[in-house]
Amino acid sequence: MTEYLNPQLKIQAKKEVNLLSEFDLERLLYVLRKSLPFIFLIILFSGLGTFLFLRWSKPVYQAESRIKLEFKSSSDLLQLEVGMFQEGIDAINLAGEMQLLKSNSIYDGVIDSLNLYVSYFVQGDLLSDERFQSTPFTVEYRYANPDMQDRNILVKIINEDQFRLSLDSENPEEAPVYTFSELIERPGLKVRILKNGSLQEKDLNENFYFVINSKANLYKYFDQNLEVAIDNRGANTLRISFQDHNRTKAIDIVRALNQNYLVKTIDNKNRVYEQSLNYLNAQLQITRDTLDRFEKALERYSRMNKITIKEDVSQVMERIREYEDAKLELRMDLENYEKIEQLIKSDSNTVYLTAIASLIGNTKLNELLDQLYKAEQDFFRLKGAYKESTFAFQQRKKAINNSKLELYEIIRLQKNFINKQIDEIRGEIGRLQASLYQNDQEDNDFKKLTKSYEIYEEISNIISTKLIEIGMAKAGTVPNFQVLDEANASSVPIYPVPVIIYAIGVVVAMFMSVGLVLLRYFMQNKITRVKELEKLIEAPILGVVPSYRKPMEYSQLVVGLNPKSSMSESFRSLRTNLDFFSTKHKQRLISVTSTVSGEGKTFVTLNLAGVIAMSEMKVIVVDLDLRKPKVHLAFNHSNVEGVSSVIIGKSTLDKCIQKASIPSLYYLTAGPLPPNPSELIMSSRFEDMVTELKEQFDVIIFDTPPVGIVTDGFIIMNKVDLPLYVVRAEYSKQTYANSINDLYHSKNIRHLSVILNDVSLNSQYGQYAYGYEGANGYYEDPPEMTSLWQRIRKKVIQ
Q1: Of the candidates 681, 546, 562, the residue with the CA atom closest to the CA atom of residue 622
Q2: What CATH class has 530-797?
Q3: Is pTM beyond 0.90 here?
Q4: What are the domain boundaries of the chain?
């Protein structure tokens, strides 16, 4: 349908086509081939950059530990009824414990335990290596003001006894010499450097330096490298990880974190217990003072009222108190045995059982508990490796049950024995209390005193019981966590990982290469091949001219140098295609132009004229580029006289026309540059000159200025029989096609034809060879060129 469209509409339709939005596989392959050297450089630099990055990046190691938080109170584990005293002791949560682990109070403990106030380094060629606990010297600093903190202090060991010490802003070679263990006093700094054993020879060649770390810098260091995360919320487990360039340091810091967290947890819990114990001790003292007052009041009342009792009241009261204390201790032992029995039944941790048993002091019980602990440990070791049905598994389980049965038996015997002792004590207390009431006529006031005494005595017993229970809870204080995985770090650093870094390098190189190709593809606005040119223009394509590989300072006549070359063959093809135009018109006047300078119009003019002259036709090349002439350079002739001289009448054609090296080929140079080239070409004298040339030559070829710069070329194109338009591959922009279409349609230059110049024979993207030299020395057109010539000739005939 497009064949029937108006030519103007065709041009408009072509202008509206966005060539960048059309995917062109051939153009992409062409750009890819052109980009191969750059892609190779990208891959080379990417690989080199990856190698250097891995070579000079300091490895980062990560130490990890997992802990499980215990939310059950230690008093609950011991089954102590401490009531209100346990509130707040074990009320923990995951978020709170995470904040505690990342608190400055924990950091301070780690810093003190590992002595991180001073860091030691060895200078390398590009990087420095930290020497954690492996330096030949140790720094003891007594004072360092803020200006001396967080900066490098260089130590250059001279020999076994001496060294130089300098700041990072000083020249190490001019630094003062000190001896080991000497107190060094400098402005803002007091330090002593102690030698760690004998120095090795390599230590004398190393450049050491140390840094006195400020608290703020250490806190920042911990915050940046420490990570505390929830490992399993359901199991209340936390994962503690620390990253550092030194693997040993990372492991030690995680271990110190666990240890300081343990101490901090126990301290926090014991602080509450201490407050409770202090309060109860104060209340117990008040109660006992009150008991003493009642005891003295009873004794005084007995003497005044002459109450007869078998024994002195004070002695009786003292013995009753002793029996009550003994009864209380027995009752506590009884409760402890009962708690142990309950904990055994609930399969509680043996640690808590041992803590309670230590309060009783029963040797046999401790031995049985130790036996149970070993049996449980043996059982847990086999539990993960053996099935329940195996003999080894059943044997370990049976050993645990036997140990528990023995414990139950000794507990039962001890409970019976304690109950008997308690009954005996109760009997003695009853007898002593009865001795206070021998007289049936006792005074009612005496009974009141006795009753008050008994009440305070009971209060004293209760407080004493609570003191013992809280003391037991404090003695059995355990941390709120247990370490599931001890701190450890892999010997392989977590960063950089060579596989990942190389993969990133490959991906980066790939993306950069693809980006480069796509960028060049979308920025490719040059005409490179005939198919592309056919899509852009309406004018027929006369032919193509291959690239001339030999360097030329200016355009040359080369068709006569090697008649069998591809260059000569291409111009012979152009000459053949010109014959198709001669079927309707006698073509004598030919003009050659281009859009801009540098597209090869002069080169095409010269060699087309030379090839036509070889066909025994008399041809002349006329240089009408009166602004920038070049024809005289091609023939190595002066430009003193020429076209401008003939037109203004200062010379004649016969005097200005020169003969070329090819027979029947002549040329006429431009002559002196005139101030008004366009007026000269439009003058009647120019017409007279052309008429005179027609009488002498068969073919006249004008080399005209670029039409995209001046109008001279357009004026000539209207005067000739066949205007030729040169487009240079990989040089002329696609937008130049608009000028060609405008000339072909709007300016009504109907016989306009286009020549594609400087096409690379080696490029598959623009492969338009004109033949190849075979074994017999003749040329043939390959199938691709046969198709090309058919398309060109069809357009020319049309």
Answers
A1: 681
A2: alpha beta
A3: no
A4: 2-57+496-523, 312-438, 530-797
